[in-house]
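Obj.: predict assembly geometry.
Materials: sequence records (below).
Method: joint structure prediction, all chains together.
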Amino acid sequence: MSAAALLEIDHLSIRYATPRGTVQAVRDVNLTIRRGEVIGLVGESGSGKSSLVSSMMALLPDNAAVDGRLRFEGTDIVALPETGRRQLRGNGIAAIFQDPFTALNPVVTIGDLLVAVQHHDHGAGTREKRRRATEMMARVGISDAGRRLRQYPFELSGGMRQRVAIAAALLTHPTLLIADEPTTALDATTEAQIIDLLRRNRSAVDGAIVFVTHHLGLVAQLCDRVAVMYAGEIVETGPVGAVFANPRHPYTRALIACEPALIRAATRRLPTIGGAPPDLTAPPAGCGFAPRCPLADETCRSLAPPVVATGENATARCHKVLP
Amino acid sequence: MIWYTAQRLLWSVAVMTITISVLFCLIYVIPGDPVSMALGPRATEAMRSELMTRMGLDRPVLEQLWRFIANAFTGDLGTDMWSRQPISRIALGALPHTLLLATLGIGWAALIGIPLGCWTALRRDGLADRLLGVFSAVTIALPSFVVAIYGLLIFSVQLKWLPALGAGAAGDIADQARRLILPSFAIGLGWVGFLARMVRASMIEVLSENHIRMLRAFGLRESRIVLRYALPIAVIPTVTIIGMGFGSLLSGAVLIEIVFNRPGIGKLTYDAVMSRNFPLLTGCVLVTTACYVLCTVAADLMVARLDPRIRKSL
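Observations (raw structure tokens):
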């Protein structure tokens, strides 16, 4: 284990038993997250990023079967019993959720919630925790904190609620902050404000930030490194600049081609990737992207692709790595 | 909150006015006029018209209706022609017996049913959950008077643990309490399973919500999440149901009061029907309706207390 590694994901697979059969949501994922970096996790709906992120939060549903290792600061979360996992949640690992409209408990005030999330800190009293909450409210850009703390979530706007959620996460002094699509439910202006807020608070997190999104533009703005997920696998990782300038996996290239903000030439029709991701109750023997890939041949369809090193800290999982 | 309370009370007054009007009309629909029922077939015409004037029956219908409503709101429900006592006194005298019975019946059911619902929600599809499912189906389907009769046969007749009939001697609290055990058991039994199933269903729904996941992601203890953050939301529909159920028990307890030969507003209503004492019946129905309306208002206020979204939107 290298000294800088904060979270080491080692051959992680997650399966869910469903009435339709076993869904292989995450398949053999390897990823190392280092202290001080912001890593973007990109993928379309159903690519397995939510499951992967839940496992990083030490929070998986009861019907999930997990294989492999997930070492946070050296401790394997997978092997840990639930009580041990609970000790990590909100105490080293913190999360910001997708939908601020439903993520805050409706029957407690903002102040009570912000005090409650500091429960792992047994040294401080309620008064001290409330003072910290007030301070943190100012830091996440909420004015009139004293009044806001006495309000309920439904009295706040969406952007304001997401600021509260960020305040809650930062109050626990996380070494791993997981932002699970924190701006998807917000309008563009509010999104820009929240992204700005996260960027300014990067240094407040003494560790790493995992930023989950399907918005490549945000990854370019916020992240150092990117990991692209497809059909439960990480298909490409690398520094943001390098991956965006020269994607090595055909899926990444197609994804970037579909990003409206990155399209240079004027067009009347937005590009899309034809076809649909594979059914993960019966994952394909070969590459999951093969049916939609313009470069795919017989090898791609029958043989699982190898992980190819494409540079320093950069990999692609493909038979036909692009030059 | 004050405005909301006032609003709900105003609404209750409206409901009561309508109820009273319907009851007033009933007097005209029922065959036989009150005067001949009071005086009997051998009354002279002079006696009849004298009583009609005294009862105000010679006035225009709308004026009668107005006086009827006004009297009811001031607590004057007329005089019982048999006992010569004010009907309000008779009805309000019987009411506490039923209130106590209904409170105890629903009270023990809530004290057991609500925690049971939480517990089975956390251990969904476990053995206890399945047993509760069967228990609920059986006890909800079983009429309370059947439970009452079996209770009497087993605990009073066979085992002789508990007294069978009546409300107990006046002033003897221990005796009165012992005589409340079987009736409140019979009333509450169906409610235990019903409340447990309701709380279980809404608890399962609340526990799957995003804000609960957020609290879990911050490592809060599961028991704290359930009791402090989920239960106040999950119990809201149950509070409304308890309010309405309690209200309807005031008249619904009649079978239990008959089986155990207990005084109460249900028994009084039943007796009024059997003796064709319509003024008394009207009084009983009015008191019951008033209680029912007050119960729903109380439940509404309680819900507003629990849910800040409702409280603050007022």
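Conclusions so far: Residues 91-312 of chain B form a domain with the MetI-like fold fold (CATH 1.10.3720.10).
To do: check interface contacts against the pulldown list.
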